[in-house]
Amino acid sequence: MFVRGTLALALAACGSAAIIPHVERSPGFLSYPIIHQKRSSQIRGRDETITTYNESSTTYLFEIKIGTPPQDLKVVLDTGSFELWVDPTCSAASTKDQAADCQSAGLYDPSSSSTVVDMEATNELPYGKGVVDIAYVADNIQLPGTGNAQTLKQVIFGVGQESQDLAFGIAGVGHGNGFNLQYNNLIDEIYSQGITASRAFSVALGSKDVSNGGAVIFGGVDTQKFSGKLFQFANLPPQIEQGQTGMWRYWIQLDSVGITKPGSKSSAYANSALPIVLDTGATMSYLPQSIINSLAKDFSAQVSAEGLLVVDCATAKQSGSVDFTFGKLTIKVPYHEFIWEAAPGECVVGAAPVSGTTPILGDTFLRSAYVVFDQDNSNIYLAPYKNCGTKEQTLPSGAGAAANITGECVAPSAAAGSFAGRGLAAAVGFAVVVQVVFFAL
After folding, report:
1. Are residue 340 and residue 194 in the same domain, yes or no?
2. CB–CB of 108/66 below 8 Å?
């Protein structure tokens, strides 16, 4: 998904290939409350192994306003990619359900904007089984709720020309300029145009059992969305994918996967340590076959033709957890967050075999974690998710600064995140719509 040479030439011609110097103007943070909504269409493009079950609970969108006058759209928050693209039409949707989802997210018509610039470049962006052909433009993006003074000027993004199995536009918030791209992506522009003090942001998806409560905060953190300290981990450099060094992703070292059955002690699976990607754009988590086999045994699951672990829906009501350990931190994902109803009366464990060489912790894990992604210092911070209100603040800049922030929520006694074995928080889910609030220091 690297930018093709045509865009590189266009950027060079207009002097935009390098990151714009950071503008000093009392940067703060952008808070996007997450509203959960069910979807009509099938599992997202990243979920290439799932073809027959409808996904009913986990797509995460946020609202942006593009152009002059501003046009309202909702786009998927995707930590697994790094480019922004939007839909100009829904006429080429693969199914009626996808067309309905596309229409609900809003459309962007470049010809209706007086500030659009044609970059005269195209690209093809693959997402698992989904793919989109885009034409690059630059236009203004207004930050909802902030007034005209908080408008990102001439942000480069793609306008979809043709797509397959992708119902929504996507806002990739992965590593951009200097990592995977030759131009500023959305994260770069929010920082370089002085809205935030760093290229860091926090994500709490919110429990799938409630209608709201999650948040995406660029340049900030909410201390009432997690319990205990934020544990600091290295954002690992590009790993070997498909036999060669891959792109920059949010790789983190996972030390073990295990399970805590109802009324039993936690047990870790043998040889379950591996580097893994944190990806909000994936409905499921994708793990090595040996771990999937262990989960199938512990859940007494039936394995579908697609490799999914089908279980009795009553299992989701039990008090067990699937446990993910990173150093001294264990995130314990409750059964009710890790199991979802994929079709009426049919429930599926939220993990499937990884089909390639990029294992992923998707929404079935991230619903129970609070995550801070710090691109500037190549760090990732984790804590157990817990919602006890809202108390947002600016993330301090500098290496390791977020490690000094402590969550204000009380650890629950039921299965959830834990520090070295003690029970703690959990939860998160659904499709997301967002309105932005800007906070300055």
Report:
1. no
2. yes
- Nearest to 365, CA basis, from 304, 420, 287: 287
SS3 30: strand
Query: Among residues 78, 101, 188, 374, which one is catalytic?
Result: 78
User: Tens digit of pLDDT for each residue in 312-328?
Assistant: 999 999 999 999 999 99
Token pair for 161: 């020309």
Q: What are phi and psi of 406, to 5 degrees?
A: -115, 135
What are the distances in angstroms from CA 410 to CA 213, 283, 322, 377, 424? 16, 28, 21, 29, 8
Measured CA to CA, the distance from residue 362 to residue 337 in angstroms comes to 12
Cα–Cα distance list, 196 to 27, 29, 155, 206 (Å):
5, 5, 16, 23
User: What is 84-107 written as a DSSP string?
Assistant: EEE-S-STT-SSHHHHHHHHHH--
Examine residue 434 and state whether it is found in any structural domain, yes or no: no
Whole-prediction pTM value? 0.88
Q: Give me the average pLDDT of each 10-residue run along the chain (441 residues).
A: 47 49 66 68 51 53 91 92 95 82 92 98 92 97 64 97 89 97 97 94 86 81 96 98 96 99 96 98 94 98 93 96 98 96 89 94 96 98 95 91 93 52 33 41 40
Quick one: 180 and 291 in the same domain? Answer: no
Identity of the amino acid at 382: L
- Catalytic, 323? Answer no
Q: Which are the contacts of 135, defined by CB distance < 8 A and separation ≥ 6?
A: 118, 119, 121, 122, 158, 159, 161
Residues 259-279: pLDDT tens digits?
Answer: 999 999 999 999 999 999 999
Let me know whether 192 and 226 are in one domain: no
Dump the DSSP string for 127-156. Answer: ETTEEEEEEEEEEEEE-TTS-TTSEEEEEE
Answer yes or no: do 254 and 366 share one domain. Answer: yes
- Let me know whether 68 and 121 are in one domain: yes
pLDDT digits (tens, 9 = 90+) for 227-253: 999 999 999 999 999 899 999 999 999
Tell me, yes or no, if 47 is annotated catalytic: no
Q: Which is the catalytic residue, given 101, 188, 279, 298?
A: 279
Same domain, 288 and 324: yes
Which CATH number belongs to the domain containing residue 359 in this structure? Answer: 2.40.70.10
Q: How far apart are CA 398 and CA 188, in angstroms?
A: 17
177 with 132, same domain: the answer is yes
Q: How many separate domains does the chain show?
A: 2
Q: Are residues 157 and 113 in the same domain?
A: yes
Containing structural domain, residue 318 = 220-427
